[in-house]
Amino acid sequence: QKKRRAATARRQHLKSAMLQLAVTEIEKEAAAKEVEKQNYLAEHCPPLSLPGSMQELQELCKKLHAKIESVDEERYDTEVKLQKTNKELEDLSQKLFDLRGKFKRPPLRRVRMSADAMLRALLGSKHKVCMDLRANLKQVKKEDTEKEKDLRDVGDWRKNIEEKSGMEGRKKMFEAGE
C-alpha cells in the first residue's frame, strides 16, 4: 500500500505539472496571436489622420466609400465563384455516381402508415380500392377426420370413466374388443 500511495502521489504531481505547463503554453499562444494581430493591422491599416477642414473630411469619406464598394464587389465576385464551383463539384460527383452505377441513398425515416394511406399518398384521388388483406382470402372448410369424430363421441371424460367403471364397463370393453 505504501508503494501505491507513492505511485498515486507521483501521478498527481505529474498531472499538476502537466497542467501548469499547458496553462503557460496557452498564455504564450494567446500573446503570440495578439502580437501577430497588431503586426497585421499596422501593416495593412495605416493610422488614420483626420484632416481639419470639412472639405477634406468629405473627400476622405468619399475615398473610404469607394474602397468599401470595391471590397464589396470583390466579396460578391468571390461568393459567386464559390457557388459556381460548388455547383460544378456537385454535378461532377453526381456524374461520377451515375458512371459507377452506385447511387447515394438518402437517409430514410420510418413512417407508420397503413396500406390504404400509402396508396392514397402515391396515387392521390385515383385510389379507390380498399386494401383489406383478409377480404381476399379463400374460405377453407375443414374436413372431419375420424380422430376428431372419435374425440367428439367420447365427450366428457368423467362420463367415459363412469361408464367403464364396474363390471358393466368391463363387459362393454370386452364386447367392443371382440
TrEMBL record:
Binds to actin and tropomyosin. This is Troponin I, fast skeletal muscle. GO terms for cellular component: troponin complex. Residues 23-102 form a coiled coil. InterPro entries: Troponin, Troponin_I, Troponin_sf. Gene3D superfamilies: 1.20.5.350, 6.10.250.180. GO terms for molecular function: actin binding. Troponin I is the inhibitory subunit of troponin, the thin filament regulatory complex which confers calcium-sensitivity to striated muscle actomyosin ATPase activity. GO terms for biological process: cardiac muscle contraction; skeletal muscle contraction. Keywords: Acetylation, Actin-binding, Coiled coil, Muscle protein.
